[in-house]
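Bit of a strange request maybe. I'm writing a small parser for C-alpha cell strings and I need a real example to test against, not something I typed by hand. Could someone generate the C-alpha cells for this chain?
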Amino acid sequence: MHGPALSGWLMVALCAATGVYCLVRMRVCAGEERRAAGGEALMGFGMASMAMPAAALTPPGWSWAVYAAVFGGVTLHGLPALRRGGHHLHHLVGSLAMVYMAVAMAAPATGAHTGHTVGAAGGIPVLTGGLLLYYMAYVLHAGAGLVPVTAGAVTGGPGQAWTTRPELALVCRLAMALAMLAMLVTL
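Reply from user aminoacidic:
Good idea to test on real output. This should exercise your parser:
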C-alpha cells in the first residue's frame, strides 16, 4: 500500500484485530455464520498483510500473484454461496477487489510521462471509482445500522457473550470496508 508509514501501520493493526475477532467469533458460531466469520477473518488478515508499509517490508514481486491466487480461489469458492443470500455478494465483491488490487500492485508503472500512469500501478480508474462508490455506500449503510432507533433497540442483554453480539459483527464489517476504502484511495 502506498502512503505514510503511520497510516499503514494503523491499517495493519485494524485489519489484524478484525481478523482475530472474526477467528474468535468463528469458534463460537455455527453454520452459515461460522463460514462468514471465517471469510471475514481471511479478508482481515489478507488486508493487514497488503497494508504493510513498503518502508518496513518490501514484498517480493511474486507476492502479488499469491494474493491474486488466494483471493481468486476465495472468489470461486464463494460463487455457489451467492444463491443462499446474506453477505455473500459483499464477500464476493471484497474478494474481487482484493484480486484487483493485487493485480494492480503487480503491474509495473508505465505511462506517457512521469507521474501519469495509464491502467498500470494505479489500476483502472473506472473500476477503482466503482469500487470506491460501492464501499462508500456500504460504509454508510453499515454505519446507519449501528445507530439504535430507541434506547431499547440494542440487541442482546448483559449476559450475552461479546463474541456473539450482532453489532460487533457489523462493526467488524464496517472496519474492513473502511480499510478497503483507504486501500483503494491509495492504490
